[in-house]
Design brief:
This protein is of the alpha/beta class and 240 residues long. 40% of the residues lie in helices and 10% in strands. The structure holds iron/sulfur cluster.
Length: 240
């Protein structure tokens, strides 16, 4: 029976994880229709949470993340999308997960939603280089599906360590999964956006994801009202 490349990649990953008894047949062309099934968490492998927690600068943490095999998204990503911006930023934007453009370019928020986020940052009289932008999930979920709870759990140590290193004054979470990952709670984003929450000692402003704004332009005014609160908190003059 022919074996498609997805399944072959899955077996290759299992070998990397220590399942040394597996045999991998040669790659075959044209074996359509044999989708790789989601694997159990028992397939998780390094780095350990202790290794992530032991990183003491963003460069080291990014290098550790680049080879991460902690969840099934390692199988399908092009590359890990770690984060970008100032390592001493007062303001951090935390989104959900990379999309197709981000997966290809290795930088968060570079597609259409990313351009909208860049416009929002400029409207706040800041630049992408002055803030820090990251996602709670570092690898693209296939077909941009929602992240699974075990994937959020597996990736959580990275965003936690990023926040500990950057020590922003304010975090803006974009969409419900970012907020869920940082707070450990499931909120209706519509009910909490625009209200201050806390992540440890850091103030958190939940707001809508830019991708939602592309679908629902009428919500842009809500996000802008949220960003005006952030500007005031950071001491940036707020336009009337
Ligand atoms: S999504 Fe996070 S935990 Fe999963 S493989 Fe990528 S970096 Fe590792």
């Amino acid at each position: 029976m022919a074996m498609n490349d997805d399944l072959r990649n899955e077996l290759a990953l299992l070998l990397e994880l220590g399942y040394t008894h597996l045999d991998i047949p040669a790659a075959s062309a044209g074996a359509a229709g044999e989708a790789a099934a989601p694997g159990p968490l028992e397939e998780r492998a390094g780095p350990t949470t202790a290794e992530i927690d032991g990183c003491d600068d963003l460069g080291t943490l990014g290098a550790v993340a680049s080879d991460c095999l902690r969840c099934r998204l390692a199988r399908t990503r092009t590359q890990v999308v770690f984060g970008t911006g100032s390592p001493t930023a007062d303001l951090m934007f935390v989104g959900e997960a990379p999309g197709r453009d981000e997966d290809l370019q290795g930088e968060p928020f570079v597609g259409r939603a990313g351009q909208l986020l860049t416009d929002i940052i400029k409207a706040m009289k800041l630049s992408r280089a002055e803030v820090y932008i990251a996602n709670v999930i570092k690898c693209r979920p296939p077909e941009n599906r929602n992240p699974e709870s075990d994937e959020l759990e597996a990736c959580h140590p990275y965003i936690t360590r990023q926040i500990e290193m950057i020590r922003p004054k304010v975090i803006v979470t974009l969409g419900k999964f970012a907020l869920q990952s940082l707070t450990g709670k499931t909120f209706s984003i519509s009910s909490v956006r625009g209200t201050w929450l806390m992540h440890g000692s850091v103030k958190v402003m939940p707001t809508f994801h830019p991708a939602y704004l592309l679908r629902t332009p009428s919500a842009k005014k809500d996000v802008w009202n949220d960003m005006k609160k952030v500007m005031a908190e950071l001491g940036i003059e707020v336009p009337a």
